[in-house]
Structures are given as structure tokens and as C-alpha cells.
Amino acid sequence: MALSSTQNLIDHPYYEKNRMRSVLPGFRESWPGLLAIMVIALFCDLPGIPWPFTVHDLLAYIDHILPPIQGRGLFIDLLHFNYVVICLSVGIIIRNVIGIPKSWEPGLSYYSVFLHAGIIMLGSQYLLRDMVKLGGLTIIIMVVFVFGTAAFFVFLSRIFKLDDSLAGLLSAGFSMCGVTALVATAPMVRAKNEQITYAIAATVSFGIICMIILPPIARIFEITQSSFGVISATGVPNSAQVIASGFMYGFDAGKVAGFVNIGRIVLIPAGALFIYFLTMTKDVLQAERINIWQIVREKFPVYVIGFIIVWGANCLHFFPKPAVFAMEKVMIWLFSLSFVGLGLQTKLTEVRKAGLKGLIAGYVGGSVKLLLALLVIITLMKYGFIE
Amino acid sequence: MDEKTNRTEALQKERDKIKAETEKQMLRSRINDYIAIVLALGAVFILWLLQLMGVY
Fold first, then answer.
1. What's the sign of the alpha-carbon dihedral A198, A201, A207, A209?
2. For an interface test with A, which of B8, B11, B37 has the most A Cβ atoms less than 10 Å from its Cβ?
């Protein structure tokens, strides 16, 4: 009876509302961080908004003053400083060189809202024929990479003699979309708090390296925009970094990366279950009867539904061309805000915090996956299987 | 025996703490998703409406 009345209380809408309030910082705490993100993004360069001084203008001016290298400017033409690179670099520099006040932190935690809203609006840039163009092969590559990487990381963790929980976390972080997948898998593999922090540090730091080195490497191999989008979505761990590295390479690469990454996000519940069955011992599996449907429901990222709605509406030609063009602009604003927020949240000291053994295992596994993704996609591109 | 029970209890406490913490993070992530859906669909609707009204 007592249990039932407690359950009734928990299910009560008022309790649910309070529970939501306890995890979501209110506007009073969040506005400094949100305002900082907006002001910094404005100074970085938001398309369509006339602003007298932006970092992009400054770099273009420096390029104009400096003698050209092979007829091209250093920052804009050669180093490809577009809005993604500028927003991220400015955020990282402010965080790690100047430092940020504590009052910014609650607002900065909203950066994923902007990222997810941007991904939803990405649906307006895609038609059904774009998905057909990507083809079933891309879907197969992605599914194989998600489950293959998960299994490979569990195997690698055994070689490095890592704890099963940490193995599960690294496996989730590197095989699917980084931090979100890692947090979703944590309770299933019975991870400790410090292991979660450790795995997040390893995944995020590896993602940062990927984001920086992948576009220049791809330019050496003259990889097409579409193929780079697929490489980015299969090789880079975190969603934000997938989108960032894609747009660093080019607008079309960013679009493809975002689209393919949606498939990876959808696989979180299945991937988490797969890792659970791989890492837990037979005794645990027999003792615990898990509800698969409940896990799928709990772990499914609901913003994918928003993407499907916008994409579906675009496929049905609900939006005329000028509206699609305006949506592209708004999408870039949202991504700019999220990249500034991501940069402001990137602590470079996290790499040191992660320690050596797990970091090596993560980096070795992540590098193998990235190289394999590059190799597979370049081969398929050469033989004309993908564009 | 007591030591073993204490250790099991401590382990259980640690697990409960982690479960509560990850549940909190999952809830935050879910709320963020809802806000993102409202923000993006709202923006799409406004842009579509403005276009329909011939603003651009």
C-alpha cells in the first residue's frame, strides 16, 4: 500500500515537473552563458547579420596584407577558416587561455540544444533522392562500423586488461555517438562515476584530434564532399565533432555527415544492448532480466523525430525554395551557437586527466576505426560504389 | 562475513548513486531534445509562414 502511494506520488505531474526543474538550469542562472555564446558567435560571423567587426573579416584582412601563398590567402583559402573553425577556435581559446566565469557554466550546458535544433533543421536541406543517392551501402557501412567497433573495443580492452565497465563505456563512446551513447550505456555496464568521467575525457579528446586532422588528410587524398561526410560520421566519435569536421570540409560534407550520423544515433539503444551482452558475465546476465523494450524507449534520442518531421515535410515539397534557403541560414546560426558553446566547454586539461592505459586503448581503437573508415570509403569511392 | 556484507552494501550504494546520476543526465538530455524540437519546428514554421505571407 505504502509502495503504491509512493509510486502514485512519483507519477504525479507535479513531481515530474519538479524533477525536470531540478536538472534544468533556469533562465536566471543560464542567461550569462547564453548571452556569452550569442555575443561571441556574432563576433565570429553569422551569415546574413551585418556586423561591423568579425573574426572572419579580421582573418580576411590579414590574408589581404600578407603576401599570398601560391596566389591564395593563408587563413581563408589555405587553412580553410570557415565559421565552424572560427567559432570552435575562439571558444577553445577563450576557455583555455583567458578562462570563463562560473556564472557562464549553466548557460553553456544548453549548447546541445542548439546542436540538436540545427540537426533537426538539417532535414530541410535533404530530399528523398539525396538518401537514395547515399545508398544502402552507406547504411551497411555505418551499421557494420557501429557493431564492429563495439566488439573490437571489448576485445582491445581485454588485451589492455581494462575493467569490464570501462571497456563497455569506451566501446559505447567510440562506436556510437560519443558522450550521449556513453551516458546511456553507463548504468547497464555498472560503471563508476570516475570511469564515466575518464571515458568521456578519452572520447572527447580523441574527437577533438579527429576534428582537426581529418579535413586536411582528406584534402590530400582529394576525397569528395559526400564521401568525407560518410567518413566523418563513421570515424569521429561525438555528434558535435562529426558535424563540425563535416562542415569544416565543406557545406555538402557537413550535410551528409549530419544525415548519416542520424542513423548512428538511432542505433544507440541496440548498440547499448549489444555492449551490455558483450561485457557482462554469464552470471550477471542470468541474474538480471532486462526489459529490452524499456531500454529502447528510454535510450531513444527523441530529437530524431523532429528531424524526420522536417525531412518528411521537405520531401513532400512543403517548403518553397526561398524558405529552404532561409532555413539553411538559421541552421548555420544554430550550429555557430553550438560550436561556440562546445569550444567554451572544451577543457584541454581533460586529456591529461584521462590517464594513460584507457587513453591508449581508446586512441588505438579509435585510430584503427578511423583508418579503416578512410580505407573502406576511399576504396569504394575509387571503384565508383559511392560518390 | 560482516566485512563482506559491508563491502556489498557500499558497492550497492555506489551503484544507486551512479544510477541516480546517469538518470539525471538522461533526463536532462531528453529535456534538451524536447527544447530543440520546439525551437527547430518553431523556426521552420515561422519561416514557412513568412514565406507564405510573401515577406521574402
1. negative
2. B37
Dig out the grid coordinates for A124 from the structure.
530541410
Q: Give domain limits for chain B.
A: 1-56
Mean predicted confidence (pLDDT) in A96-121: 92
Helices H / strands E in chain B, number of each: 1, 0
What ipTM goes with this model?
A: 0.86
pLDDT at A2 over 50: no
Select the residue of A115, A302, A330 nearest B34 (Cβ to Cβ): A302
pLDDT at A193: 67
Q: Does A363 touch chain B (CB under 8 A)?
A: no
Q: Is the pLDDT of residue A103 over 80?
A: yes
Where residue A126 falls among pLDDT bands split at 50, 70, 90? confident
Comparing C-alpha atoms, which of A341, A332, A340, A342 is closest to residue A117? A332
Cβ B40–A306 below 8 Å, yes or no?
A: yes
CA neighbours closer than 13 Å in the CB half-sphere of residue A265? 25
Residue A4's pLDDT is 47
CB-nearest to A20 from B19, B31, B36 is: B31
